[in-house]
Design goal:
The chain has 179 residues and is α+β, with helices and mostly antiparallel strands. The chain contains one helix and nine strands; from the N terminus they run αβββββββββ. The chain has a single domain, classed as Immunoglobulin-like (Sandwich). The radius of gyration is 19 Å and the shape is globular.
C-alpha cells in the first residue's frame, strides 16, 4: 500500500513538473523570438477581449484600408480558440523589452484570405507600423470582426517585428459555427 501511495505521489510530482516545464517553455518561446537580453515581447494575456472603439484611422496595408483604435480593454476569456462572430474582439497584451527610445515596430497579422465585397481587394495579411511603447508599458493588439467578409476560419497569426526580425508572435484558431 505504501509503495502505491509513493508511486502516485511521485507520478503527481512528475506530471506537475512537466506541466510547469511546458508552461515555462511556452513563456520563453511565446514571450520572445530573440534572446532574453535583446529586443523582445513579453505576453501577459491572450484571448477574447471586450473593447470600446475610439476612432478609425487609415491602415493602407489591409483589406478594409482602416483600423480601429480602442480603449477600455478587458480580457473576457483566455483562449486560443476563437469562435468567429460579428463584434467579437480577440488578441493579446504585451510589453516590449530591450528596444531603444523612439524605436518603431511593425505589427503583421496573417490570416486566411479576406476579400472586401465592394472594392474586391483581397489579402492574407495586414501590416502597420507603430511607435514602440516604452519598456514595461502594457500594450494591446487584436482584431475585431466588424464585417461578415472578415469572418474567416483558420489560423490568425500576429507578429511583432523590429528591424525585420520577429520579436514576438501569437496565434489563434478561428472557427465558424454552422447554423
Amino acid at each position: 500500500m505504501r509503495k502505491i501511495i509513493h508511486h502516485v505521489l511521485v507520478r503527481r510530482i512528475l506530471i506537475t513538473g512537466l506541466v510547469a516545464a511546458a508552461a515555462a517553455a511556452w513563456t520563453v518561446t511565446g514571450a520572445q523570438a530573440g534572446s532574453s537580453t535583446g529586443p523582445r515581447a513579453e505576453f501577459t494575456e491572450f484571448g477574447i477581449f471586450k473593447t470600446t472603439r475610439v476612432k478609425d484611422v487609415p491602415q493602407p496595408v489591409s483589406v478594409s484600408g482602416r483600423m480601429s483604435l480602442v480603449a477600455n480593454i478587458k480580457l473576457l476569456k483566455s483562449t486560443r480558440l476563437i469562435v468567429g462572430q460579428l463584434g467579437r474582439s480577440f488578441g493579446f497584451r504585451y510589453r516590449l523589452r530591450g528596444l531603444p527610445p523612439g524605436a518603431r515596430v511593425s505589427i503583421r497579422t496573417m490570416h486566411p484570405k479576406l476579400t472586401h465585397p465592394v472594392t474586391g481587394k483581397a489579402m492574407t495579411y495586414s501590416l502597420r507600423s507603430r511607435p514602440a511603447s516604452p519598456n514595461g508599458i502594457l500594450t494591446y493588439t487584436g482584431y475585431t470582426f466588424d464585417h461578415r467578409y472578415e469572418l474567416a476560419e483558420g489560423i490568425w497569426k500576429f507578429q511583432i517585428i523590429y528591424r525585420g526580425k520577429v520579436i514576438g508572435e501569437q496565434s489563434f484558431k478561428v472557427v465558424l459555427l454552422m447554423n
